[in-house]
Amino acid sequence: MKILQISNYFYPHIGGIEQVTRDITRALQGTEQKVFCFNGGKEDITDEVDGVEIIRAGCFAKVASQSLAVRYGKLLKKTFAEFRPEIVVFHYPNPFAAHYLLKLLDAYPDCKLVLWWHLDITKQKILKKLFSGQTERLLKRAVKVVATSPNYIEGSAQLQSVREKTVVIPNCFNESRVAQTEQTRRAAEEIRARYAGKTICFAVGRHIPYKGMEYLIRASKFLDEKYEVLIGGQGELTERLKALASDDGKVRFLGRLSDEDLKAYLLACDIFCFPSITKNEAFGIALAEAMALGKPSVTFTIEGSGVNYVSLNGETGLEVRNGDAEAYAEAIGKLAADGALRARLGAAAEDRARSLFSLDKFCENVKKLTEGLKDA
């Protein structure tokens, strides 16, 4: 069985879709497979990652987050002709790539299309309308559509239209990013000693609007000095966030964290804060990582997002009305005041993450999907 994945980018490029694409290659070890994607540079290149051939089309520009490549169509056509894939896993959204893929699929009617649905196009409303016909063709042509959570199916009109062929395969957390070592434990102890007597609230993620770090900072203003709010990551909003927090000594910006530092802060914190506010946060891998380390979380209710599937309100963490900074602060305070509650939610969080969102479970789900397509 020959399987071709078509993704935006691939490792060493870092991103959620790229990580899922790589996880799928790991799940399909032993299967004849290739990955087709964009290259960060302008040249077309072919290399190998984890024993899998990666074909990268040189990118000359990006428009509204969409990469563009002059030779994309010719290179994809050549790949089809030489590899002749039996299954194509297409990572959605990627309208430029979809244009060429749909043309090729007409020429390869026996090729089975699996549409891996990462998120609805919501931010670019004009693009959503412009490519609505293309999306309908993809959904119609697909033999299976993969969603990362049942919540996302319920909240997406497009997925609702093909519910009978939609399956749920949750994303998985990176095992290496939560593996504890003696060095990690010592670093975590040093962090706890640095903030002795304080409740440590930790958040990490890109500083962009949908990640909602602004609301965590606003929530901090309702907390007293018994708390420390530590924020990792950086992005386009970093300076604005620092300005918003300039009168609040509890908030500390950690910048971009190495994997070792990330593990140390996750181990050290009392509460994991995940303040994302829109469906652009389709799942929440960072949330699953924190849960895997036994940390209770505070999230917002995001209609149609998988965030509230990853962490369950009252079972693995606390969830409050979207954008309500005061309610977010109250939830933090509730967890801080009740050690038994933190322990109970944290234990349930670890159990849920390791049973549903581990790489082993992901691989099992992917193999079940592809095996089921052999005779479809």
Number of helices: 16
Backbone CA Rg: 21 Å
CATH fold name of the largest domain, please?
Rossmann fold
Q: Which spans have pLDDT < 50 for at least 5 consecutive residues?
A: none
What does the largest sheet look like? 8 strands, mixed
Helix content: 40-55%
Strand order of the largest sheet: 3-4-2-1-7-8-9-10
The CATH architecture category of the largest domain equals 3-Layer(aba) Sandwich
Features:
eight-stranded mixed β-sheet; six-stranded parallel β-sheet; 2 domains; 376 residues; alpha/beta; Rossmann fold; 16 helices; single chain
How would you describe the overall organization of this protein?
By secondary structure, the protein is α/β, with parallel strands linked by helices. The protein folds into two domains: 2-172 and 359-372, Glycogen Phosphorylase B (Rossmann fold, 3-Layer(aba) Sandwich); 175-356, 3-Layer(aba) Sandwich (Rossmann fold), CATH 3.40.50.2000. It is built from 16 helices and 16 strands. The chain has helices spanning 16-27, 72-83, 95-107, 125-130, 132-141, 150-155, 157-160, 182-194, 213-220, 238-244, 259-268, 285-292, 307-310, 325-337, 339-356, 359-372; strands at 2-6, 32-39, 45-49, 52-58, 61-63, 66-68, 87-92, 112-117, 144-147, 166-168, 199-204, 227-232, 251-255, 271-274, 297-300, 317-320. It has an eight-stranded mixed sheet with strand order 3-4-2-1-7-8-9-10, sandwiched between helices. A six-stranded parallel sheet has the order 13-12-11-14-15-16, with helices on both faces. β15 (297-300), α13 and β16 (317-320) form a beta-alpha-beta unit. The radius of gyration is 21 Å and the shape is elongated. The two termini are 13 Å apart. The model has no long low-confidence stretch (mean pLDDT 94).
